């Protein structure tokens, strides 16, 4: 959505465009619960008419008292009491339905947002704008949609009251209409303009607002707090936070001033007009043209016009303020979803993966101009264990993500069992692959869930869960129902390496035909690393095993080592073949050996050997 600069001229076209959001919002809210929606609309209409019925009741009653006829007085009194009672009953019903509807809106819209999240692709979560949108939508959904709905309802009631009060005055003197309608109409246009401008300001502010949110996040979360303390960053971060927010405060005060001045002028003009009409009413009464009941009725109608025209203008303003949220909600719900299986392709299932073939795979991320993978060619067959090595940023993890079909890539360059990945049923394919990501998740849930998420259908099979844990050397907690992490009560915090072992157990729990571990040993001590890799090599004997490692002493345990450099495969072979033929691999190995040797000598020296 394109928004003009802060001080740009706001046109009627802009205003009309913004009003168009109202019917769309109503449809969205209606779909939450049709019955409550229509009942509330109906009650709002009744509530809009109720003040007028009460007004007519009191006018009748006063005139009846003037007539001194007891029968007329009693029937006028009954009418008046019934009108008051009815409006009380309507407002009680309204309260119940509003509360019910608010709960439903909060629950169902949040569900809709979560459901939408599950349907997006990974690229959406790597896009700052989408992330920004998601955060706003999530934070504001518990109260904003209902606030918007309330504003719309308020507008319905206020418009009904405004026009019916107007009818009473028109009935008396039609020309009064010109004064009383013309003024709010002219002013409402300027209120639109003010609202639109405030909307523009908050829209343009969104990226900086997010930065400000991130700065406060750095100061208030346990995982960032340690560094903030140790590097003494509090002052620096606070200053940055102040800088951004001071600007916002300045803008807000400026806008607030404008709105206050404007509202004051409106009220002044309106009061002059209303009081002119009031004087005319008094003159008419003195001339004997109208009865005392009518005088009271007309004055009440005037008051209703005054209060409701103000209410309508305030509602216009609040609808504008909420426009930003509503726009983002619609934009978020309208994001294109992950196309798992293309309609124009024949999609075939896959049972067990026996071979992976990569042919001329070239890839770049949509947000990054750099070609991250260049002409990759690789064959992996059942029974092979492959290690991928290479410098940081050489494309190892990207290759894994493409093997998992986490990014759309139209070219047919990855084949499972000879079939292009684009022709395979994505869910079935993913079921066949177990993976440990470099940035694996530490689920602040039970140990059972942390391991069982590898195959949710078998989460209750304690024996199998324990077997996976044993393989991954998770021998530090026995009870599967232990809560992990510190977020919730009774949680047990694990060390970095222990969390990694739990994540490895999760991958191993899956009954897959391809196992992929992206840097499984980054947080493991050397003994655990050796044990885990030995076990991995062993358990993938009749499967396909792929692991990424920065340690060549680990990589050499694989059947084949793939050396990557700057997005290209620069060597494939056994450890010994590569040592003999690949310059980069040899250099990497020598450096590692040298480092180990130095370390060994240092240890010997410090031990005095
Ligand atoms: N989501 C992304 N969007 C844009 N560019 C990305 C993304 N992820 C990675 N890159 C870029 O792709 C290149 C390869 O990254 P990748 O994570 O595949 O490297 P790697 O070999 O796994 O590195 P490391 O050993 O540090 O884990 C890098 O230049 C990185 O900046």
UniProtKB/TrEMBL annotation:
User: Where are the bilayer-spanning segments?
Assistant: 37-58, 70-90, 148-169, 175-192
Single Gene Ontology MF annotation: ABC-type transporter activity
PROSITE patterns the UniProt entry points to: ABC_TM1F, ABC_TRANSPORTER_1, ABC_TRANSPORTER_2
Protein name listed in UniProt: ABC transporter ATP-binding protein
Domain (ABC transporter): residue spans on this chain? 356-591
From what organism does this protein derive?
Answer: Geobacillus proteiniphilus
Localization in the cell: Cell membrane
Q: Does the keyword Membrane apply?
A: yes
Q: Which UniProt keywords apply?
A: ATP-binding, Cell membrane, Membrane, Nucleotide-binding, Transmembrane, Transmembrane helix, Transport
Q: How does it sit in the membrane?
A: Multi-pass membrane protein
What GO cellular component term, any one, is given? plasma membrane
The record's SUPFAM superfamilies line, in alphabetical order, gives:
ABC transporter transmembrane region, P-loop containing nucleoside triphosphate hydrolases
Concerning InterPro entries, the annotation shows: AAA+_ATPase (IPR003593), ABC1_TM_dom (IPR011527), ABC1_TM_sf (IPR036640), ABC_transporter-like_ATP-bd (IPR003439), ABC_transporter-like_CS (IPR017871), P-loop_NTPase (IPR027417), Type_1_exporter (IPR039421)
**Main location as per UniProt:** membrane
């Amino acid at each position: 959505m394109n928004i003009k600069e802060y001080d740009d001229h706001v046109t009627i076209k802009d205003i009309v465009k913004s009003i168009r959001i109202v019917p769309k919002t109503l449809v969205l809210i209606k779909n939450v619960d049709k019955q409550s929606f229509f009942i509330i609309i109906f009650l709002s209409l009744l509530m809009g008419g109720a003040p007028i019925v009460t007004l007519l009741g009191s006018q009748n009653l006063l005139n009846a008292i003037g007539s001194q006829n007891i029968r007329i007085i009693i029937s006028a009194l009954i009418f008046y009491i019934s009108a008051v009672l009815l409006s009380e009953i309507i407002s009680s019903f309204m309260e119940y339905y509003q509360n019910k509807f608010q709960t439903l809106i909060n629950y169902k819209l949040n569900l809709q947002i979560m459901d939408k999240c599950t349907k997006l692709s990974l690229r959406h979560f790597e896009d700052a704008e989408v992330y920004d949108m998601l955060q706003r939508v999530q934070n504001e959904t518990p109260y904003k949609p209902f606030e918007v709905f309330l504003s719309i309802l308020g507008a319905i009631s206020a418009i009904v009251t405004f026009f019916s009060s107007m009818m009473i005055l028109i009935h008396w003197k039609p020309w009064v209409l010109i004064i009383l309608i013309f003024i709010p109409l002219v002013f409402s246009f300027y209120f639109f303009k003010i609202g639109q401008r405030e909307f523009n300001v908050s829209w343009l502010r969104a990226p900086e607002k997010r930065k400000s949110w991130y700065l406060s996040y750095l100061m208030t979360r346990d995982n960032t707090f340690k560094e903030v303390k140790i590097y003494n960053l509090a002052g620096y971060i606070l200053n940055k936070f102040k800088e951004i927010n001071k600007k916002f405060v300045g803008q807000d005060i400026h806008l607030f001033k404008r709105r206050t001045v404007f509202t004051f002028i409106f009220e002044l003009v309106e009061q002059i007009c209303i009081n002119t009409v009031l004087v005319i009413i008094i003159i008419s009464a003195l001339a004997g043209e109208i009865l005392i009941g009518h005088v009271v009725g007309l004055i009440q109608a005037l008051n209703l016009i005054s209060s409701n025209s103000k209410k309508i203008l305030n509602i216009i303003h609040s609808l504008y303020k909420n426009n930003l949220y509503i726009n983002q909600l619609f934009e978020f719900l309208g994001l294109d979803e992950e196309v798992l299986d293309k309609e124009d392709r024949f999609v075939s299932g896959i049972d067990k993966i026996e071979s992976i073939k990569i042919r001329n795979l070239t890839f770049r991320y949509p947000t990054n101009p750099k070609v991250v993978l260049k002409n990759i060619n690789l064959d992996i067959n059942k029974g092979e264990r492959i290690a991928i090595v290479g410098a940081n940023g050489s494309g190892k993890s990207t290759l894994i993500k493409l093997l998992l079909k986490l990014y759309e890539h139209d070219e047919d360059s990855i084949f499972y069992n000879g079939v292009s990945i684009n022709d395979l049923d994505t869910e079935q394919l993913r079921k066949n692959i177990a993976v440990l990501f470099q940035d694996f998740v530490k689920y602040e849930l039970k140990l059972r869930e942390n391991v069982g998420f590898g195959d949710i259908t078998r989460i209750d099979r304690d024996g199998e869960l324990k077997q996976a844990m044993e393989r991954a050397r998770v021998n530090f907690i026995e009870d599967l129902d232990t809560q992990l992490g510190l977020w919730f009560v009774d949680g047990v915090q694990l060390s970095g390496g222990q969390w990694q072992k739990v994540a490895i157990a999760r991958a191993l729990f899956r009954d897959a035909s391809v196992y992929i571990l992206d840097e499984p040993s980054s947080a493991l001590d050397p003994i655990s690393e050796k044990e885990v890799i030995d076990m991995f090599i062993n358990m993938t004997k009749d499967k396909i095993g792929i692991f990424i490692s920065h340690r060549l002493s680990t990589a050499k345990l694989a059947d084949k080592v793939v050396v990557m450099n700057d997005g290209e495969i620069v060597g494939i072979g056994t450890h010994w073949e590569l040592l003999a033929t690949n310059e980069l691999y040899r250099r990497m190995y020598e450096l590692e050996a040298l480092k180990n040797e130095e370390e060994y000598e240092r240890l010997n020296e410090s031990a005095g050997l």
